[in-house]
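Dear colleague,

Following up on yesterday's call, I've attached the two folding results inline so they're easy to grep. Please treat them as preliminary; we haven't cross-checked anything against experimental data yet. The first protein's sequence and structure tokens come first.
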Amino acid sequence: MSTNSHVDSPAAADAITVLDPRDGTLVGTLESSTPEQVEIALSLARTVHPEWAATDPAARGRHLRSAADALRAAARELAELNARETGRPVEEALAGVHAGVSALEQYAELGPVHRGHALRGAVLAADYTVAGPRGVAVLLTPWNDPVAVAVGLIAAALVTGNTVVHKPSERCPHLGVRLGEVLSQAFPYGVLITLTGGAEVGAILTRQSGVDVFAHVGSSATGERIARAAALTGSHVLRENGGNDPLVIDDDVDPVWAAEQAAVGAFSNSGQICTAVERIYVHRGIFGRFAEALVEQARRRNDGGAFAPLVDTRLREEVHAQVSEAITFGAVRAIGGRIPEGPGAHYPATVLLGCTEVMRVMTEETFGPVAPVSVVESFEEGLARAASGRYGLAATVLTGSIANAQRAVATLPVGTVKVNAVFGGAPGGSAQPRGISGEGFGYGPELLDEFTLVKVVHISSPPVGKP
């Protein structure tokens, strides 16, 4: 049987056209999967699941290692396609592919040793737990780091014995299809299936009763719709959604270094990261020097000629609308904040000063290269304002005080608290988002738990001396 498990769409399906956000040229057009093909994909995944679930975990790990080899061989091709569809620089996209390779290799090792627990019971009895796959997993993945995120979920779902139906973002459909072709050759037919389409295909998938687990990485609005739909079908839901991550800066740190951290957090990948710095609370004692240094960081990026565009003009309009609204409400545009002339979806690194919570740049996810700054009179005030809002993905504090760092860990209602580094952390540092930012573990060894169900086993000895 063919190992290419991409479900192609007929000519009558809706088309997805993608333009290169760097210059507006045509990347290509793909047709969306139809409702009938969604059902075919799910039916196939359900049909092959028992055999895949019965496959020895070590053998499943070997399949993952083969997939890692295939992904490594296709890394440059996928990175260049990523750059064409999303505007991400090729070297950054290549790093994302290599992260996907690492995820496959790591889960190939973790899957076979994913173990249960021994339970203390009677002396002549055995009590323990075993984990088994949930069944059919539907993965809905984003465009901002499309290979690393998708492959991490695919690897964890497959190594635990689930079959996977994957729908990549409609903003990078060619990349999603090619990724599916590369990976699926390492697995039996039907174990990994790729669908194409936008929100309408995602909506069809979420209404299906035969899906055992949904994993979604993307906007909070979409994640909430999936959670509501899954409540009617009984599907398990795992979602890492949007963030409005705060950065709190104490008065005892170097303001130039703090500005560098803020710039990395707000401007990396042109701000298109779920854990990007979205709002900044800086102590008045260092505000002046910090603001000057942050504007300089933005200027360097804007003048360097290599600052990547946003994924498309639609997102650029959304980002610019928030910036324009903030200026209308009294924010000071220190740099950036204007749509440049020319083709593509470029938007400059932008610094807004004097921001308040009446502005959407401080209360909603912006997903663009915008650094909104607000002055606070104390670290405690910064923490209190950082703790407000509906989101709960991550937060960062910059402080030389261990007491303030500990206070931040104790009080910030987020899944991840970062102290003195906006990005980084040890491998496997999986977290549980709060609020509308999601639910469940999205990374690390705990992700294996999300894709499995636990069964308790109790074994007793039969009565002695009875016929």
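Below is the second protein, in the same order (sequence, then structure):
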Amino acid sequence: MQPTLSTLTTFQAHYPYVPVMVKQQLAEFDAVKLTAYLRQRGTSGALTIQHQQTISYFNDTTVAHLTATSMQLTSEFSDGHTTIQPDINAGLQTLLTAYQTPRIAGLPPFTGGLLGYFSYEYAQRLVPHLTFKNANPHKLPLLDLVLTTRVIFYDHQHHEIGLTQLIPTTNLATAYEAAAQQLPKRLAEIMAIFATPAEPLPPLRLTSALKNRQTQAHYATKVDQIRQHIVAGDIFQLIYANPQVATMTGSLLPVYANLPATSPYQFYYQHGDFETVVASPETLVTKQGTQIATYPLAGTRRRGRDAAEDAKLAHELTTNPKEIAEHNMLVDLGRNDLGRVAKFKSVRVTNLRQLLKFSQVMHLGSRVAAEVDEQVTALQTLAATFPAGTLSGAPKVRAMELIDEFETETRGIYGGCFGYLDCNGDLDMAIGIRLAYRQREHLVIPAGAGIVADSIGTQEFKECQNKERALAQTVTQVAEVAHGLTH
């Protein structure tokens, strides 16, 4: 077990918890099989992140389940007690501080902490005097997180599966010995899962066909109204969503099983009647020690039907003055966001307008990085960048006010973020796009288009559909395979 007890003893006086790890080689790994197994046990949260390395994380022990409304944070602990706190951000920080751990080299980036998602509407708790009035018919929370102290991880490059656990530093030697006895046994149980035949996944059945919430004509009319605000100088850009909706029975787990393996972020999360699957291409913000970064992704074209058309569309995207101007504006917004917490003169653009290709669309992507002081927390870093300008607009606050006027329902995880906040102060959060979620029987596949002064409503309607296409096709195909439906 790593680290050694003598190494951890050096942190005993300064931290309430320390992380330990066991790991083994495992050549054949199946994230879906492990997710299904954990789902049956009542734990949820599967997250795969592809940066310089690819690591999958799974919640194996839920200490508390956290949800929030506009009024309070509710923490339901596994021992049966519940706490309610009116200050959501203070409540989250209290938990992270109570389980604070040191940052130790040689361990995976996420060893324990908060795992889950923040809804787009969480912005109300971060921006003074911002209040959303949109309907919330599905009672979506501002956030839905688990506090986990034991995490299963799989390192795809080194073919290693492991467990990390946070152990208390009070009676450290006793806690260390107990973990040294228990973790290898638990790891053996997990590895045994992959030696057994896969059980059938729960079915998915569409009980009504997917369709956009707004017709093309209605959406185009609203685009023209938004353009009037741009001409008047209220905003420069606004992300206007038009989700596809349907009704369903069963589970989205078969959709998770068919997410594109190339997605930088893959996420599955289930709590009660809520379930979401995400294949997001876009990081919101990362923090590793004192280094923070955000990754604006703006400018879209569909993928070509063949190599020649693909190259033509790529050239069109990378040379289009509208797309370049829109992207540069959002890069500047990212610089301003990081500047709220960054050290003076540390903000820099390290990549600008790289062409990024995905299964159904291509984008322009950039990277903005900065440095923060040691005392800047992960939650403060998240607050500085949330929500992404690429999912709200510019100026950000006025754009969000207008989104609340033009969109009829709350967004939930769409335009919010998902990922982890580690108890060591690090975080990795992706933007909630390229996703599907359900609340009870209501299924939503959301996407939006960036509206600027010269936007054409019918084209922006099609951009929403292009962004929704991959998930919509997967949902339909999974339902057809399971039940022989056609839509």
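For the second protein, one point worth flagging: The first strand starts at residue 17 and ends at 25.

Best wishes,
A.L.
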